[in-house]
Amino acid sequence: MQGGAAGSEPPFGRCQGRALRVGAWRPLASTRWVFPQETELNLPACPPGPPKRFPVAAVDAILRDVLGSCLREQPYEPARCREMVKDIAEVIKARVKDLMIPRYKIVVVTHIGQLNEQSIQIGSRCLWDPVSDTFSSYVFKNASLFALANVYAVYFE
């Protein structure tokens, strides 16, 4: 079996249905890799993905409810908000886990800041499968503070 291009790295295995072919790669000339010996391992079929999608609408409702109830009348106090951000993240995570969605890893990230005529940009990056992984986000504001809560749901195969 041959493949590859000049300067490309050789693959270390190929999934062919239910079998994984493994062996030692060696360069042939300067432009190809040759797979001289193959061993086939019988592996169980990988599931195609989650049986049902993550309920983003339900998580949006949880975020709205938790942030609204915890912060509606709360003034911005740095020491108090530092503790509240941890508590809010734990409450959100517990309520999302109560939805009993199997095989999803839940990550909750919350931010609280002072609302005082300034701006802030908050970004995040994740490596995931767009078919099965998703997120939910909600921004809350009152007279003195803002809060952002993100819930990332990553499907665990």
Automatic annotation (TrEMBL):
CDD domains: DLC-like_TCTEX1D1. GO terms for molecular function: dynein intermediate chain binding. One of its GO terms (cellular component) is cytoplasmic dynein complex. One of its GO terms (biological process) is microtubule-based movement. Belongs to the dynein light chain Tctex-type family. This is Dynein light chain Tctex-type family member 5. It comes from Strigops habroptila.
